[in-house]
Write a structure and sequence with these properties.
It comes from candidate division WWE3 bacterium. The structure is a single chain. With 477 residues, this protein is α/β, with parallel strands linked by helices. Helix content is 35%, strand content 19%. The chain is globular, with a radius of gyration of 22 Å.
Amino acid sequence: MALKKVCVVGGGLGGMSCALDLASKGYSVTLLEKGRVLGGKASNVNVGDFSFDPGPSILILKTIYEKQFKDAGFILDDYITFTELDPIFRIHTYEKYYDFPAGLEKNLQFIRQSFPEDYNAYKKIMESCESAYKATLETVFKHDIKSVLSMANKNFLRASSLVGPYDSIVERVFKNPILKAFFYDFPGYGGKKFTQPSPEAFMIPYIMVKYGVFYPKGGVSKIIEAYEAVLKLLGVEIRTGTELLAIEKEGKKIKKVVTNKGDFYADYFVSNIDYATLQTKYLKHINNSPSKNLIKTPSHSYFSLQIGVSEKPKILLHHNLLLNTEYREQYSQVHLKRQIPKNPTVYINAPEDRQNLFFVVSSPAIENGIDWKNFETKMKPYVFDLIKQYDIKINPDSIKAIRKQTPLYFDNEHNNYLGGLFGATDDKILFNLFNPITVDKRIKNLYYAGATVQPGAGLPMAALSGRFAAKNILSSN
């Protein structure tokens, strides 16, 4: 019997994950990527003598990658050397800093000592997260959520205290402004607003504490390198420098994709392109009801400054959060007023094995009234002024390399819709909780992967999305 052919468009981790599962099952897979390397925002970028991870920097849920490699007949540890971090990160305030320890018992002791007024509430949240995590393993991490019945699970009921407007829960259960500001930031990591239901936002710190935060020696891009090595062993045809130009449909199926390197035909097509970009740029003209695909506004984004230095500030750990306790004002500026925040929380990544500093600030995407080209010229003094408030100083003479990213970069280089990093807007989120599913409802041989479809943003979720897409293709035969 002839091998089924699959064409995966977009070589980020979601596309690579899907290609891995299908190739390990005997499918003939071609992986197309418009960049010079695979990995998308998780790929490595060299500037002078410095090597940067330009996107993800927190690595959690290592078991997701381990299981996928094992299912395909490989061992992840043969390709990557991991270090588990403890403390997980350092929380900086204007007055002092707090080291957030790994391990649930140690973490609870830290909360009792540092924020005694919130110990009981924090412990209860962690207990609710335990039930929610069990439910997630049995549902959200196994398949797309297509209906209410897809979520049927007794552990969801036990975790019902996490369901509701996120800000209302935080305001109700916590008293200390530092803990409030700490929890405030987590919905944004998944593309949610602070006012939306976001039970998974509580689970991120729980997963970090309970199951660990890891660092691959040499950088997060080592995950990408490991996947690429295995894909080559499985015979996946990898075409970098191959940009999607058009999609041609025949009947209810895609016939071929047109690229700058020629046309590609297949039995199945998988898009690892930002969902909103694919709908508005490539599919609108071939669907019968293009109005259904209209994306009203982009999700939020971030801007970042990366510098290579000869000397790192000693006050920084691997992961750092510079907390502004005026979190509601920051939320209003980014999500309501659609402005560059004036005094936001700042994330700083300072890996131990490299002389790199990575500063990240949440922001709107490409909006009327924001001149991102002009702001890029002001980004360095903007960031340096922010960190000075936390007594973090960088000697200008120690800076040897510099790199900047704004929503314009994400739009141009990574096809993120108007520079938004999380794809679907509120009207595209199922039950106000879940991104679009990985199966196209109108085109029979089109599937989706990546951070803008289920189960959501982040490297482990992108890997799962690729597995979901592959599972749906396998079940269609």
